[in-house]
Write a structure and sequence with these properties.
By secondary structure, the chain is an alpha+beta fold. It has 3 helices and 7 strands.
Length: 209
């Protein structure tokens, strides 16, 4: 009589479906880093040593990127052919990218220590079916998680990150034009000084003459 409750408990942890749910939470590196968060990209710590107990040599790790308010409705694809693509982000509100061999995240941790999300500008307008790590189209916020995929589908996943908000690009209309006026003032002062120097030189020559 207790078997159904056991199955429900296993389903809650992902064991019944064969999907391991790991406690790891992806995050932007807490240390100072040039370009850590920009208007179209952000850096993530690599999930090193996270999948070692679940991955085989042929498995790959994907990054799932979703708008923060759509992460709860994301459904893992059953195969690589069903992976949501970058070009569908504004329609599906999520996509998968950065497909990487699981061995690249095995212990000991290799370098570099971070991943760059949105850093591939070359694939943005090519219309390819391959996973693209293109620039993010808006400030978000976004949530991300890592998903381990094998030949038979998903095997393990991390938790979703906290919301990640990108920087807002400055509009040209918001740029203060004051520096331009300062430049003009400097030119005027320089011209006056040059004229004054000419007058002084003429006066000196007149005295000497």
């Amino acid at each position: 009589m207790e078997l159904p409750w056991v199955l429900l408990a296993l389903a809650g942890t992902g064991t019944a479906t064969g999907l391991a749910r790991l406690p790891y939470v992806p995050r932007v590196p807490p240390v100072a880093l040039l370009g850590k968060v920009t208007a179209t990209t952000f850096a993530l710590e690599r999930p090193c040593c996270v999948f070692d107990r679940h991955a085989n040599a042929s498995d790959t790790v994907w990054l799932v990127v979703a708008f923060a308010n759509a992460s709860a409705t994301f459904r893992n694809p059953s195969s690589r052919a069903d992976v949501p693509l970058y070009k569908q982000l504004l329609t599906t509100l999520s996509y998968m990218t950065l497909e990487t061999a699981a061995a690249a995240f095995a212990c000991p941790a290799p370098s570099p220590a971070v991943l760059r999300v949105g850093g591939d500008t070359a694939c943005k307008d090519q219309g390819r079916q391959d996973p693209c790590n293109g620039p993010l189209p808006s400030p978000g916020p976004y949530r991300v998680k890592f998903l381990l995929m094998g030949c038979h589908g998903p095997k393990a996943e991390t938790r979703w990150s906290d919301p990640i908000l990108l920087r807002r690009a400055l509009s040209p209309s918001t740029i203060d034009p004051v520096p331009t006026r300062h430049g003009s003032v400097v030119v005027v002062i320089a011209s006056l000084l040059a004229s004054l120097g000419t007058v002084l030189a003429t006066a000196v020559l007149g005295v000497l003459g």
